[in-house]
Design a protein that fits this description.
The chain is mainly alpha-helical. The chain has 14 helices and two strands, in the order ααααααββαααααααα. The chain has helices at about 20-25, 85-95, 115-125, 130-145, 150-165, 170-180, 190-205, 205-210, 215-230, 245-255, 260-280, 285-300, 305-320, 325-340, and strands spanning about 185, 190. Helix 3 runs antiparallel to helix 4 (about 130-145), helix 10 runs parallel beside helix 12 and helix 12 packs antiparallel against helix 13. The protein is globular, with a radius of gyration of 21 Å.
Amino acid sequence: MGDKGVPPRTTKDKDTENVKLGDEQSRPPQEPGDCSSKSPNESPKSRSTPTTNAFPDLTVNRESSNPLGSGEASEGQSEQPKISLLQSSKERLRRRLKDKEASSTEAGGSGSQNMDRLVDLLNSMRSNSSGVEQQLASFLEEAQCSARSEETLAQVVSAIYSKAVSDRSFAATAAKLCEKMALFMVEGTKFRSLLLNMLQRDFSRREELQQLDVERWLGFITFLCEVFGIMRSSTGEPFRVLVCPIYTCLRELLESTDVKEDAVLCCSMELQSTGRLLEEQLPEMMTGLLAAARDKMLCPAESQLTRSLLMEVIELHAHRWSPLEALTTQYYNRTIQKLTITA
């Protein structure tokens, strides 16, 4: 996760960040497997357990700063299995269909300690609130007053991260918060460095998360994509070192055999928000990912919801990631809503 505008480091000063990007940037684009733990053309069965070096090109130094998916099945076809989405996926889908989002419960009272107040502020934030910018400003002010040591700064990062991966509707707001605090530094350690380390940790253990805590697995992928879409280096560039891990996660969402519709929904929504930027960074990996999406969409064993979600992404890509026409968007919204009405 590089920052192209980082000043030269010294052996005594902790003001810079040692982010290794050279190898990743010099890698030929025709060999996407080199920057991902899994090649886009690799089958699910051949997927190996991820290594602990989750982001191969990142080293952070502490001394541094319907046609197919919709329509009724013919009488000769077998009945589609009933779709059961996770509650978090239902909530995200309702937002995507422009339905009213259920209000989250605001945490009451504030603790006597600074971290207690920060957690209260986080829990009181609502992503769809008109006053979210004021809430962000209040949190930033409180966080900068509270983070007086590397330990307390780590606690601030952990509080934001935990909220983001446990509440997917908050991921975008959390990424905005991280962007505003990215260069905040205490005792030579930058906020951004701690955040990237947490993302790297969960990327390296994503298979364990998928097996033990599906909500956190989906939350991690959502937050990873939001960070990529919002945060920028000091030169205004996206963190290119995040690209291959994101492609890997999106491919694994398509290949998931558990909570299949939830995984495809997550993949679909993240591609709609970050697909253009991802393709600009590594277009050949997007080609491979969309090929896998087409294969899945054409599989008759997949649910109508899965096929509709993937068809929308493929059509959006054909539209060069620009918004689809209003009638087309309405068609997908009605179709997807109808297919999930009993989920």
